[in-house]
C-alpha cells in the first residue's frame, strides 16, 4: 500500500509489481516486510492500549485471488492445448536430449515365466529399499507370481541426501550387506552370491543393461558430487567390494522402467508406467523408430537388429516449462531451487513440492491478509518444512471444524504464545489451499500422461480410440498410494481429456491408472531376467 502523496512513485511501484520476478521476490520477502512495515499499518482506532492490524487485503479477497490463479488455467480446452504443446516437446526430446526421453537397453518385456532369487534395490526420493525377491513364474491358474521374501525400508533423510560421492554408495553397501546376511541365515549358507538389480530414481545414461552414467540428481541429493558421469554400477560395486559384499550388479533401470517391467511380468498388456511420489516420472514402451538413432549412443549392431521396441525413461518431470502456467509462488520456489527450471512438472505436482508451494502461499496470506492474525507458525519460514502429508490431512479430515488436521498442523507448527487462537476461517483457508494445489497437480499430471498416450498411439500407427490404443498405466509411489483422492482425481481429468479430445465421449476408458504397489522394487528383480 503506498501513500497518495507520491502518485509518480506509486505508478512506478505498481508497474514493477506487474513483473513475475518482482512478485516472486515479494513472496519470499513478505514475512520480513510485514514485520518491518507493520508500524505503517497499525492504526489506533481504539484507546491507545489496543491497536488493530490493517492488511493489504481481506482473507476473502486473498482466497478468491488464489483460487483464480490456480483454477483459471485448468479449463478442458486449455488442458488439451497444453497436451498438444507437450506432445511437440516430447517429439523434440525423442530426437535430441541427453537428459530426457532416455532409451534403456531393455527391448523385450518379461514373459512371466522367468524364475529365480534376486537381491533388489530401490533408491527412491525418501526411502532406500533392499529386498530378497523370488520370481515364481506362471502358476496353474495362469498368473505369474513374484514374492517379496524379505524387505527393509531405510529412510533417506537430509543427512543421507547430503552424503557426497562414494560416501553415499558406502552407505548403500552397508544395507546391502545386512540383507545378504539375512539371505545366508535363511538358507543356512555363509557366502551366497546373489544377482542384484537396481531401480534408480534418477536419470541415468544407460551404457549397457547393467551399467549407466550417473546424471544430475534432483530431490536435494548430493551423491553425484565428484562422481558426475561415472558408472553407477561401478560406484556401487566398488563400495560392496570394499565391504566384501558378495553380490553382482546385473541390471540397472530407472524406477519408472522398473515399475513397467514388473507390471508386464503379471500383465502382458502393460505399456506405460507412472511414478508419483517425492518425484514423478513415466516410462513408455515405444517403437525404436520413435527415437533418433543418435539417442541410442554407441550400441552393438546386434542390439538394433533384435530391438523393434525399447523401454524409454521419459524423465517427464523435465517437461512443461514453456507450456504449463505457474503462479508467483511457483516462480518463487523455482527461483530459490538449487536446480531452477530442471524439473518444471515435478516442481508443480509431487510430494516434495506440493507442501512447499502451500508454505509460500500461507506466508503470503499471513503477511498480506492476516491469516493466523499475522503470526507466523514455528518452522513455517524454513524451506520445505511444510510436509505434503499435512495437505493430505486437511483434505482427508471429515470434521467440518478440521479438528484433527489442525491439531496435526499445530503439533509441527506451533503458533507463538502471544498469538490468538486460530479462527475457523484460518483452517478452512488451509484446506482450500491444499485442494487448489493438489487439484492443479492432478490436472497437469493427467495432461502430461494424455500427451504421452497420444504420442505412443501415433508412433504405433494407431488411431486414438481404436481398440489397440487403450492402455493401463502401472502407478507406484507414496503420493499415488496415500494422498486421498489424488489418483482418482487424476483419472477423472484423464477421462475428460480422452473423451473430449477425440469427440467419442463414452466407449470405455482409454487410459486406466492402476496401482501397482511395490512395482519399483519388484521391477529391479524382473529387470535382471530381462537383461539376460
Ligand atoms: C525424479 C527423477 C526420475 C525419477 C522420478 C521418480 O524426477 O529425475 O528419474 O524416476 O524422480 O522417482
From TrEMBL:
<keyword id="KW-0067">ATP-binding</keyword>
<keyword id="KW-0547">Nucleotide-binding</keyword>
<dbReference type="Pfam" id="PF00349">
    <property type="entry name" value="Hexokinase_1"/>
</dbReference>
<feature type="domain" description="Hexokinase C-terminal">
    <location>
        <begin position="271"/>
        <end position="529"/>
    </location>
</feature>
<dbReference type="GO" id="GO:0006006">
    <property type="term" value="P:glucose metabolic process"/>
</dbReference>
<keyword id="KW-0808">Transferase</keyword>
<dbReference type="GO" id="GO:0008865">
    <property type="term" value="F:fructokinase activity"/>
</dbReference>
<dbReference type="GO" id="GO:0005739">
    <property type="term" value="C:mitochondrion"/>
</dbReference>
<dbReference type="GO" id="GO:0001678">
    <property type="term" value="P:intracellular glucose homeostasis"/>
</dbReference>
<dbReference type="InterPro" id="IPR043129">
    <property type="entry name" value="ATPase_NBD"/>
</dbReference>
<dbReference type="GO" id="GO:0006013">
    <property type="term" value="P:mannose metabolic process"/>
</dbReference>
<dbReference type="GO" id="GO:0005524">
    <property type="term" value="F:ATP binding"/>
</dbReference>
<dbReference type="GO" id="GO:0005829">
    <property type="term" value="C:cytosol"/>
</dbReference>
<keyword id="KW-0418">Kinase</keyword>
<dbReference type="GO" id="GO:0005536">
    <property type="term" value="F:D-glucose binding"/>
</dbReference>
<dbReference type="GO" id="GO:0019158">
    <property type="term" value="F:mannokinase activity"/>
</dbReference>
<dbReference type="GO" id="GO:0004340">
    <property type="term" value="F:glucokinase activity"/>
</dbReference>
<dbReference type="Pfam" id="PF03727">
    <property type="entry name" value="Hexokinase_2"/>
</dbReference>
<feature type="domain" description="Hexokinase N-terminal">
    <location>
        <begin position="74"/>
        <end position="265"/>
    </location>
</feature>
<dbReference type="InterPro" id="IPR022673">
    <property type="entry name" value="Hexokinase_C"/>
</dbReference>
<keyword id="KW-0324">Glycolysis</keyword>
<comment type="similarity">
    <text>Belongs to the hexokinase family.</text>
</comment>
<protein>
    <recommendedName>
        <fullName>Phosphotransferase</fullName>
        <ecNumber>2.7.1.-</ecNumber>
    </recommendedName>
</protein>
<dbReference type="GO" id="GO:0006096">
    <property type="term" value="P:glycolytic process"/>
</dbReference>
<dbReference type="InterPro" id="IPR022672">
    <property type="entry name" value="Hexokinase_N"/>
</dbReference>
<dbReference type="InterPro" id="IPR001312">
    <property type="entry name" value="Hexokinase"/>
</dbReference>
Amino acid at each position: 500500500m503506498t501513500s497518495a502523496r507520491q502518485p509518480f512513485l506509486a505508478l512506478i511501484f505498481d508497474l514493477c509489481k506487474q513483473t513475475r520476478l518482482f512478485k516472486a521476490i515479494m513472496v519470499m520477502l513478505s514475512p520480513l516486510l510485514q514485520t518491518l512495515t507493520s508500524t505503517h499499518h497499525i492504526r489506533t482506532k481504539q484507546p491507545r492500549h489496543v491497536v488493530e492490524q490493517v492488511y493489504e487485503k481481506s482473507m476473502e479477497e486473498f482466497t478468491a485471488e488464489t483460487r483464480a490463479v490456480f483454477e483459471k488455467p485448468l479449463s478442458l480446452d486449455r488442458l488439451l492445448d497444453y497436451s498438444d504443446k507437450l506432445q511437440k516437446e516430447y517429439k523434440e526430446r525423442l530426437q535430441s536430449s541427453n537428459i530426457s526421453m532416455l532409451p534403456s537397453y531393455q527391448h523385450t518385456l518379461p514373459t512371466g515365466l522367468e524364475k529365480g532369487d534376486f537381491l533388489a534395490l530401490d533408491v527412491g526420493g525418501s526411502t532406500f529399499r533392499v529386498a530378497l525377491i523370488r520370481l515364481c513364474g506362471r502358476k496353474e491358474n495362469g498368473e505369474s507370481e513374484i514374492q517379496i521374501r524379505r524387505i527393509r525400508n531405510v529412510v533417506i533423510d537430509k543427512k543421507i541426501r547430503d552424503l557426497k560421492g562414494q560416501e553415499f554408495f558406502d552407505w548403500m553397501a552397508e544395507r546391502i550387506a545386512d540383507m545378504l546376511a539375512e539371505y545366508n541365515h535363511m538358507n543356512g549358507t555363509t557366502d551366497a552370491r546373489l544377482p542384484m538389480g537396481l531401480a534408480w530414481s534418477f536419470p541415468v545414461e544407460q551404457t549397457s543393461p547393467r551399467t549407466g552414467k550417473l546424471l544430475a540428481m534432483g530431490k536435494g541429493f548430493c551423491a553425484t558430487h565428484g562422481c558426475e558421469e561415472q558408472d553407477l554400477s561401478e560406484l556401487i560395486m566398488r563400495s560392496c567390494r570394499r565391504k566384501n559384499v558378495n553380490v553382482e550388479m546385473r541390471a540397472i533401470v530407472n524406477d519408472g522402467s522398473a515399475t513397467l517391467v514388473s507390471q508386464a511380468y503379471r500383465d502382458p498388456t502393460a505399456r506405460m508406467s507412472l511414478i508419483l511420489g517425492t518425484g514423478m516420472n513415466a516410462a513408455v514402451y515405444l517403437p525404436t523408430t520413435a527415437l533418433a538413432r543418435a539417442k541410442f549412443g554407441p550400441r552393438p549392431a546386434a542390439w538394433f537388429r533384435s530391438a523393434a521396441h525399447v523401454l524409454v525413461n521419459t524423465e517427464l518431470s523435465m517437461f512443461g516449462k514453456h507450456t504449463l502456467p505457474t503462479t508467483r509462488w511457483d516462480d518463487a520456489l523455482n527461483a530459490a531451487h538449487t536446480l531452477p527450471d530442471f524439473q518444471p512438472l515435478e516442481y508443480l505436482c509431487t510430494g516434495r513440492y506440493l507442501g512447499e508451494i502451500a508454505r509460500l502461499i500461507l506466508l503470503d496470506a499471513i503477511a498480506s491478509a492476516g491469516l493466523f492474525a499475522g503470526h507466523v507458525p514455528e518452522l513455517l519460514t524454513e524451506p520445505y518444512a511444510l510436509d505434503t502429508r499435512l495437505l493430505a490431512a486437511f483434505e482427508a479430515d471429515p470434521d467440518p471444524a478440521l479438528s484433527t488436521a489442525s491439531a496435526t498442523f499445530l503439533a509441527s507448527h506451533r503458533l507463538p504464545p502471544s498469538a490468538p487462537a486460530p479462527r475457523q476461517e484460518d483452517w478452512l483457508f488451509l484446506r482450500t489451499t491444499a485442494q487448489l494445489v493438489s487439484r492443479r497437480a492432478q490436472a497437469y499430471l493427467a495432461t502430461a500422461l494424455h500427451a504421452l498416450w497420444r504420442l505412443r498411439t501415433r508412433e504405433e500407427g494407431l488411431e486414438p480410440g481404436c481398440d489397440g490404443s487403450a492402455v493401463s498405466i502401472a502407478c507406484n509411489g507414496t503420493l499415488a498410494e496415500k494422498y486421498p483422492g489424488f489418483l482418482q482425481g487424476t483419472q477423472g481429468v484423464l477421462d475428460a481429456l480422452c473423451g473430449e479430445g477425440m469427440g467419442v465421449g463414452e466407449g470405455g476408458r482409454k487410459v486406466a491408472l492402476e496401482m501397482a504397489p511395490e512395482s519399483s522394487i519388484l521391477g529391479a528383480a524382473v529387470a535382471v531376467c530381462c537383461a539376460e
